[in-house]
């Protein structure tokens, strides 16, 4: 149950991590000038964990035993596109002023574990531990302060 809650929380964090332009402003004060101001602060904290470990067979006397775990797979994919401005399709501006300010901080922790399995006792006769693969990966992409002016 805890693993499902962690996975659901990580998914929600990934969805919340996609940022769009925070603020764009244009004043039609009778001139052919365009002013766009973008300001953004993005902080991503993503924790993704998969664990099939911490399994044990123990007792005073252990005669055989088998621990088989599946694969532990964990992944995170974070994309931030911040302060994107496109001024196109119109040659109606004398001056175009674009001010972008952004801060992006990513903390991504991804782990996968099939370990910490044990068979132990005062006397152990036989026993087998087979674990799957432990695979973890993270992809982080930040595209910050992109401006396109003209066709």
Summarize the structure.
By secondary structure, this protein is mainly β. Helix content is 10%, strand content 61%.
Describe the structure.
With 151 residues, the protein is mainly beta. The chain has one domain. Helices cover 10% and strands 61% of the residues. It has a two-stranded parallel ribbon with strand order 1-5. A two-stranded parallel ribbon has the order 2-6. The two termini are 53 Å apart. The model is unreliable at 1-26 (pLDDT under 50).
The helix fraction, in percent, is under 10%
Mean model confidence by pLDDT? 83
Query: What percent strand?
Result: over 45%
**What sequence of helices (H) and strands (E) makes up the elements?**
HEEEEEEEE
The rounded Rg comes to: 26 Å
Summarize the SSE layout with pairings.
Layout: H1 2-16, E1 33-51, E2 56-63, E3 66-68, E4 72-87, E5 95-113, E6 118-125, E7 128-130, E8 134-149
Parallel strand pairs: 1-5, 2-6, 3-7, 4-8
Keywords: Signal
Signal peptide: 1-24
Annotation keywords:
two-stranded parallel sheet, signal, two-stranded parallel ribbon, 151 residues, disordered N terminus, 10% helix, mainly beta, rod-shaped
């Amino acid at each position: 149950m805890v693993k499902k809650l962690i996975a659901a929380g990580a998914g929600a964090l990934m969805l919340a991590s996609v940022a769009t332009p925070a603020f764009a402003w244009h004043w039609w004060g009778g001139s052919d000038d365009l002013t766009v101001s973008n300001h953004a602060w993005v902080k991503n904290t993503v924790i993704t964990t998969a664990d099939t470990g911490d399994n044990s067979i123990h007792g005073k006397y252990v005669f055989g035993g088998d621990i088989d775990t599946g694969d532990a797979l964990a992944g995170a994919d974070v994309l931030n596109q911040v302060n994107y401005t496109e001024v196109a399709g119109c040659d109606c501006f004398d001056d175009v002023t674009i001010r972008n300010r952004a801060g992006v901080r990513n903390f991504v922790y991804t782990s996968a574990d099939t370990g910490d399995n044990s068979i132990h006792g005062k006397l152990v006769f036989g026993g087998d531990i087979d674990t799957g693969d432990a695979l973890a990966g993270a992809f982080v992409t930040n595209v910050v302060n992109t401006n396109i002016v003209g066709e």
